[in-house]
Amino acid sequence: xxLVAYSDARAPLYEIKANLFKGLAHPVRIRVLELLxxxxxxxxxxxxxxxxxxxxxxxxxxxxxxxxxLVVSERRALQMFYSLAYPQVAELLTVARSLLGEILRTxxxxxxxxxxxxxxxxxxx
Length: 125
What we know:
This protein is mainly α. It is built from five helices and three strands. 61% of the residues lie in helices and 11% in strands.
């Protein structure tokens, strides 16, 4: 997997942004980030329970999130705890949810308008 480091000053900003979104580009990783946005920190045990994943699969996704600097981890005794690396990650998820809601409303409105036009006299059959 190619990763342009966030700190690589030579990389164009659009490449760095694209890499950020690569880190987000899986439903499981989004779910993990949502869980982390709801609490200051979450244990791996709780993440396993909430996602229903096998430990090895969750570990792979957490590794990607760490690599893309979206989460941080801390070991305490035998347990690992994760948290968002930056509060803006939670804000990004909120904005994405709002954007998706708007897209869905627009799509629904367009479909309803299209259905109404076809049902009206003189509409396309």
